[in-house]
C-alpha cells in the first residue's frame, strides 16, 4: 500500500485532448505587437505572441551614447575620472508596449544585443542598465513572462546569473525564461549582426580577454551546465525557467532526457526544426514528435513557441477588414482546414499533432494530477486507513489478479504435498475490505481445492465491512472466519475440535513502495507463530528493495520552498525522510550501456531482500533479546530484538554524463509465490523489470530519498551509495549517504560526498 | 577598526609557560591500569594514562565464540537460518576498569583487533558488538575520552564512520579520538598479530573482496581523506577529534598544515618518532620540535601521548615503598633532574621542551583567547563605540607610528608645493579619543611645519574627551578645533575671516578588516567637499581588499552548532555574512609554488581597490542620481547614487592538494601616503605582505566569508571565486560564490559550486 489518493485521482474514462498553448516568435519583429495583432494571431490559431520590449530606436540611442562615451574617454587625460554612462529613461519611441489587459498573452523579450556578463566593465554596466530598464518596464506593463537570451560566453556565467537573480527581484510575479540551445549554439543567432555589445567589446573597447578555455570543441553538455550554474545561483527559484530551442538534429537520448527533467516553460521550435513532407508541408521528424509528446505529458506542459515560421498574416491578406464581423468558431475552423494555400502551416501542423497525441499508459492516467507530488509514506500500522484509500488500491487491474494466481499455485502444490482430505487453511492478514479474501475463494473455486479461510484485520471500521461481506457476498457465503485483531496478537485459527490450529498459507499485502518500508518484515515475523512450521507458505514469499540515483530539479525545488509545517516536520527534517511520489520530471543518472540508440535502461540495484518464513532459530534469539536475557544490545539501541531485520548495502553506479544528483529513486520487487515446479508469480515497480513482471500495475508509486545538498557529477563519475535499514525496539528507519568519485589515470579520486541522511525522527513505528 | 575586545584580551606582560598535558600509552599493556599505577605515573611526571577497556581474556572469549559459530555454520544445512552470534555481557575478568574518581585522567582505548567496517557481515556484526560494549562500559566508568583505531581499509570508511557516529550517541559527554597516521599506515600497527578480525576474515571466513582499488601506492592524503569522510558523516561533531600519530619522517609542509587545521585532541608520539642526541638521550628532530610548537600555540593545545617509550617505572624499581611518605615537590623535582639513569627520558625531554617554548609573535599574545573566535564586524557608523574599544586600538605599536610618518611626509610635500606662509589645514575625521590628532601634532612639531588642526567626531561621548584633551594635553594646547559632527555633514573649517575654508590633509582611520567593509569609501566621499580640490590629500590615499580560500573545520563546526540567536540572526543567515576572526587553526588551500621547502606562501588575490579623492565628475553624477534626476537606477536597487562604489571580481586559485574549502580569508592593504618622491607608508594585514609593510601591527584580525556547504577539492583543482561589493542607497553588502574545476586532458571540467552567499540582510548601513 503506498498511494494516498485521498479525494483525488482515478481513471479518466476518456482521455481529453492534450493541452498545447502555441505562441509565435520572430527574432526580428518589424511590426509593433499591438492588441490588434495579438487578436488576429489568436484568430488564426495562436494563443500568444512574443514582443520585443524596446525598439531599434532604443538600440541606436544606446549605441550612440556608448560612442559618445568612447570619444570622451579618448579625449580625457584621466579616463578613470570619467563616470560610466547612464541611459536616460525610456521614451515612447523606445518601446511599443503599453499596459493592456491583453498583455497577459504576451511574452516580453529583452534585447538580445546586450552582454550581461561582459568582461569589459563598461559593456557590462550598459547591458545591466538596458536589462534592468526593460524587465522593469515589462513588469510595469503587466507582462510577467519575460524571455532573455542565455549567456554569451561560459566565462561570464556567474555574472550573467547574478543579473538574472537581480531581475527576478524586480517584480513578485515575474517569470524569467532563459533562452538556451540544447547543445552548442542557438540556431537562430542574433549576435552576428554587428551591433551586439559583445562583438563591439571585442572589436573596439577592450583587448580580447586571455581566454584560457579551449573553445574549439563545444561541450555537448555546455548549455545544460550553464543553465545549472544559473539556477543554482538563483537557488532553484520556481520563477526561473527555460526557453529551450529545439535544433534540427536532436542530440543523444541522454541529453534529451536531461532537458526533459528541467523546468522547460517554453519549447522554441525554429523554422529549421521542421522538415518538409512529401506534399511540401512542414512537419516534424518522428524523433521530434516523440520528444514533443514527452513534454506534452508533463503535468504542466511547456508552451510551444514557433519561431520565424512566417509573420501573422495580415487581415488584409485574408481579405478580412476590421468592419466585418468576427467569424464564428465554425467558420474559422472551416477556413483553417480548407484553405489551400495555408499562411500558417506550421501552426496548423502543431494543432494537428495536438489532436492526435497517443494515449497514455494506465499508471499515468491513473496518477494524473499526482505527478511529482510528494507524499509522506503511509503508516498503516499506526493509522487506520479510510475506505476510499482501500477502494483506490482495489482498482488495480494487475495486483489482485496476480495474487489469485499465486494462491492457486500454492494451493495446488500443497494439495500435492499434503494429499486430499482436510481443507487447506488460508489466512489473509491485514484483510482490509477483503479483496484478497475474494481472490483466495476464487482460487479455491477455480482449482477445486477446498480452503478454510480466515480474514484478520485490526482496523475496527474495516472489520464491520468484512462481516457484512461474509454475510451478503455470494462467493464468501458465510464461510470466512473474520477476526478483529492485530495480526501479531492473533493466536491462530480455531480447529473443529476447539484447539488452536496452524495456517497453511498466510496471505498479506503489507508492502510499501520500497518493499519493507511499511514494516512487512516485522509484521510477518509477528504473525509467524500461526504458520505451520513444516509446510507453511507466505504469500508474498520474498521481496526486495531497489534504487538508482536520479536528478529531479523539480522535487528539489519543491522541497526547498516547502514550509516544513506542511508535513508537521521541523525545518531540518524535510530532507530526512523518503517520500512516496509519482516520479515524472526526472532523469536517471546511471544508465546501462545501451544495446539500441533509442532505449535507455537505468542501472537499478537491489539494496536488500527479505524472505518468509524467518528461521525459527533467528526468531527465538530475537525473542530472548526482547526480554533483555542477553545484554548484547542492538546496533542502534534497544535490546536488539529486531536486529535481524536490519540491513545495509553499498553500491557503485557509473554515470557517463555530468549531472546533479538530487536523490535516489526507490522501487520494489516481490515474489508472491515460486512453485518448486518452476512457476513464479511476481510483482515489480522496478522500471527495469516492471513491464515484464507486472505491466500496468498502478498500486505503487516509487519512493524518493532526497539529498539536502545536490551533488555534482562530472562526466564518467562513479557514485557510491551507502544505505541502511536501521531498527531499534520501537521503530524502523532508513539512512543514506552518497559519495562521488572519478577515475583519473586509472586511479580513483574522491570528489565529494553528501551528508548522512536519516529518517530516525520520522521512522515507521512498529 | 575591527577587533571587538570588550572586556577581554590585551598584552600579557609575561608569557606563562606553555601548557602541555602529557600522557603515556602502551600498545600492549601488560599490567592493569589501577588507581595506584595512575598515581605513580603522575608522580613521575605524566598527567594521564591510556587504558585498554577489555582484557586479553575478553578477546579470547570473542574469538572462541566466533570459532564456535563457524563450526555451527559448517554443520548446518541452511547456514542462513543460523542467527548471528551474540556476545554475552562483560564479566570482571573481561575488564580491569571500574568506576573511580581518578578515571578522568584515563583515556580508554577500544580493542584494536576489531574491524567495524568489515565486508563480512559476521565480522562487522561481532566488531560492532565489541565496540558498543566497550564504549558503553567506559562511559559507565566515567571515562569520557575514548581512543579508537581508524578504519582498517578505505573501502569500509562509510561503515566505520557510521559506527563511530552511533558510539557518540552512547554518552552525552563522550569524546571519541580516532587514531590515525599522518599518511600511509600507523607506525605502531597492531593488526599484524594474527588475531585481528580483519585478518581472520581474510584468512578464514570470506573470500577476499574483489578490491578494485589500486592499493599498491598509498595516497599521500589517504589518511586525511578517511578522516574527512568520518567527520563529515558525523556532521563535524565537536565531540569527534583526532589522535594523530607523528611518524619518524614528517610529511610535506602542506600535509603538516592540513593536519594542524584539524581538531587534533591527542598527539601520539611513538618511540620511533624520537632520535638520539649525541649523549644518547631521546630527542625530537628540529622539524618535529617546530611542528609540536605549532600545536602548543593553539588555543586548546592537544594532549601529547608518548607511546611505547617504556613502562611506568614501578615504585620498587625506584626503591620507593608504599609505607614511605610521598616525596615533597622539591624532592621529586631534584630526583627528576639528577637521576643519571632516567627511567622516563622521553617524558623528561618533553617537559624540557615545554619549559623552553619560543615566545609568540605580538598579535598572538595580543589576541590570546580570541583565536578562531567569530565576531560580527563593527558598525561604527551606526553604533557609538565605547572607550575601552578605542583604548584597545590605541595600543597598536605600529599603526599610529606609521600614520605619523605618513602625515609628516605629506606635510613636507605640501609645504614644498604651497610654499611657506599659511599653516596647512589638517582635519582628523572620525577622531575618536584623538590618537591621530596627537600624531598630526607630533608630525607638525617634528617637521617644524605649522598646522591648523581640526578633530571631527560624531560620537558625543568621545567628543567630551576630545574637548578635555584639548584643554589639558600639553601637546594639544588648545590649538585643536574640535567639532561634533558626522563628517558627511561638516561644512569644513572656518577661516580667520569667518568664511568656510578647505582642508589640505584629511586623515581618517575608517578601514575594516576587508578594507572597505566599514564604509570608508562612502564616508570619504561624503566628506570630500571639505577637501581642497587641487592639492587636497587623503590619508589613507588608497586601500584594497584581498582574499584567499581556506579550510577551517573549526570555524565551520562552530557555525554549524551555533544558535543563530547568538548573533540576532535568523537560521539561514548565519552563513550569510562575513565574520571578523583571528584565524588560527586553518589551512591555506592555494599556496604559491614554493622557492624553499620550509616556506609556504598563500596565493592571496586583490579583490578590488579604492583611492581618494574620488573624481569630481563621478561625485557629481552620483549626486544627480541621488535626487532621481536620472532614472537609470542602481544595479541592485535604489537611485544608484553609490553605484560608483560597487565592485566585483573573479579569480582562479590553483589548489595542488585535495581538501575542503570552508570559506575565504579576507585581508586588506592600504597606502597611507605615497610621496611623489617615491617614499611610501603602507599598512597590511595580507599574510603575504604584512611583515614587510607593517610587522607586528595588531589592530585588525582577518575577515572570514563562510560557505554554507563545504566544497570538496580534488588534487590539482582550480577554484573560481566571484565576489561582489554591492550597494543600494542605504547600505553596502558582499556576495560570494565559489566554483570548483579540474583539468583532465587539457580540458577544464566543472566539479561543483557553492550557493550564492549574500550579506544583504546584514549589510553595513550607510
Description:
Two copies of one chain form a homodimer. Chain A folds into two domains: 22-356, Divalent-metal-dependent TIM barrel enzymes (TIM Barrel, Alpha-Beta Barrel); 387-765, Rossmann fold. Helices cover 28% and strands 22% of the residues of chain A. Chain A has 766 residues and is of the alpha/beta class. Chain A has 19 helices and 28 strands. In chain A, the strands form five sheets. The first copy, chain A, has an eight-stranded parallel β-barrel with strand order 1-2-3-4-5-6-7-10, surrounded by four helices. In chain A, strands 16, 17, 18, 19, 21, 22 and 23 form a seven-stranded antiparallel beta sheet that branches.
What descriptive keywords fit this protein?
disordered N terminus, 19 helices, Rossmann fold, 766 residues, 22% strand, homodimer, eight-stranded parallel β-barrel, TIM Barrel, alpha/beta, methyltransferase (chains A, B)
Short description:
2 copies of one chain form a homodimer. Chain A is an alpha/beta fold and 766 residues long.
